[in-house]
Amino acid sequence: MLLSEASAGWIGALTALFVVVHIVGACSLNAPVARFAWLGSLCAVWVAMALLGADAAYVSFGLILLFMTEVSLVPAVSVVAVITVVNVLIGVHTRGQWGGALVGSLLGAVVGVVVGLGFRVLFHETERRQQLIEDLHRTRAELAETERSAGELAERERLAREIHDTVAQGLSSIQMLLHAAEAENLPPGAADKIVMARRTASAGLADARRLIAALSPADLAGSSLVDALGRVCERAAAGRCDVHLLVEGQALSLPMPVESALVRLAQGAVSNVVRHADARHAVVTLGYGADAVRLDVVDDGHGFDVGILDDPSAHNFGLNAMRTRVEQLDGRWSIESEPGHTAISVTFPLAQSGEEPR
User: Fold this and answer.
1) Are 275 and 237 in contact (CB under 8 A)?
2) pLDDT tens for residues 191-229?
3) CB 47 within 8 A of CB 41
């Protein structure tokens, strides 16, 4: 049909130009202004073809699909309406029949809109799936980093406990025995060696304490347990959640492993509150009793199903790490949660507490 037109050569050239402009613009133009100019150029080519006498509906269908996929919905439908009116006018002008021109143009517009909407849904679903894949990769990377950091911290604390319970305790006992030996009636040469040995043990004990401090949580360095927990709450309160520290009872000197565990547990629990609970208020309570020390973290967030703790497939590495840390020190652990209230409670016995090398 197009070959019978008087300007068939020009129409063929404009059709080729339409295809070239479409391909070039679709592949290389991203800026909004450039894409607007691209769509305008395609419309200009289409109008030129229509003015030369070609049946504009052949190209307008592709133009309708293009607008339906490249432009937001309301402007796209508006442009489709304009294209349909132009198609009707061209059909009436060339054939002199309103019925055929109107039905054909409307049918083409409806089909173009429906197909275009299908493409929009397909593109949206593809983008959504791509976003889900990116989120999955990012989450896996964050989980791997969290597990690596948790592993490093656990190993550092394990080494600190081992040094505290073996080397430091042994050097402390040697120092006490040598100090008692100094009070005995020993020959002068032996007494000098005893003093030198005691001083050497004292220096070794100081080095062991410094090494333990370096392997312990940074918040405990050079400060008390209450101060360390206060800094944990202060950092968390810098966000949207208001976190307070309460101390109940008379502060006692605790073994380094217990203090380190309490700081780590508070850090993990408060981090979960800030990152996942969407809570507005949280309270960290450190309670000293006659035979136990207790740490409670309570928040008013949306809560969670505590059943995930018994689900091996659930991503609850942080909670499992906290429970393992408590069990390693013979502590007791409990957690309860419902919308508006979540409470984590940890208790360590004080039977082994007392003044120990720190």
Assistant:
1) no
2) 888 888 888 888 888 888 777 766 766 666 556 888 889
3) no
- Count other Cβ atoms within 10 Å, centred on residue 215: 20
Checking DSSP bridges between strand 341-349 and strand 281-288, what pairing results, if any? unpaired
Q: Which amino acid is at 206?
A: A
Cβ neighbours of residue 36 closer than 8 Å, sequence gap 6 or more: none
pLDDT tens-digit readout, 144-183: 776 777 677 777 777 776 776 678 777 877 888 888 888 7
Q: Helix, strand, coil proportions of the chain in percent (round to 5)?
A: 70, 10, 20
Residue 299: strand, helix, or coil: strand
Helices and strands: H and E segment counts in the chain: 10, 5
Q: What residues form DSSP beta bridges with 284? A: 245, 297
Which string of DSSP letters, residue by residue, matches 229-240?
HHHHHHHHTTSS
Encode 68-94: b = buried (16+ Cβ within 10 Å), e = exposed.
Answer: bbebeeeebbebbeebbebbbebbbee
